[in-house]
Specification:
about 200 residues, alpha/beta, six-stranded parallel β-sheet, 7 helices, 6 strands, about 40% helix, about 15% strand
Amino acid sequence: MSNDGPPRLVVGISGASGVVYGLRALDACRELGVESHLVVSKSAALTLAQETDVSLAEAQGRASVVYKASDVGAAIASGSFPTLGMIVAPCSVRTMSEIATGVTSSLLTRAADVVLKERRPLVLMVRETPLHLGHLRTMVRLAEMGAVIAPPMPAFYARPASLEAMVDQSVGRALDLFGLSWTPVKRWGRDVGPAPGEA
């Protein structure tokens, strides 16, 4: 990425359950001094209203730059716009499937396609269970294309004391994949588990 300003991360929030992951990713970007470029799908706006007391305007206010899902001419739709990559948190099966085919119908999936073609990290926090064979094959296809499939799994070794701590651990571990180290993450061998040198 060029040195013409702070690092930029594209944050996509799709319509799967778990919109809080995207919200916390935006908060983390702000705390880390990373410029967040947000695109929210129409379905995600509905999920936001069902799962939180946060309005769409408030969610967008957490981002550095906001784009409409229909704005396929936005900066993040071009590979010439330098970013660290993109996280989709949460990532719905529909969004995952659209990215896998390369037939993109919104800015969210177009931006993800751009990240893949530019060989930048694309991290998909896929939210679905159980998974049928079609889902698994789509994930394999995405992994072969260079995406990282990172379902938000609770890290019980970190002994989370709250739901918020579990969310932050998942988000922080996803941000690790961009080389971003967020303070709330509990790390094995440092914060929890055996210390270095212990038998």
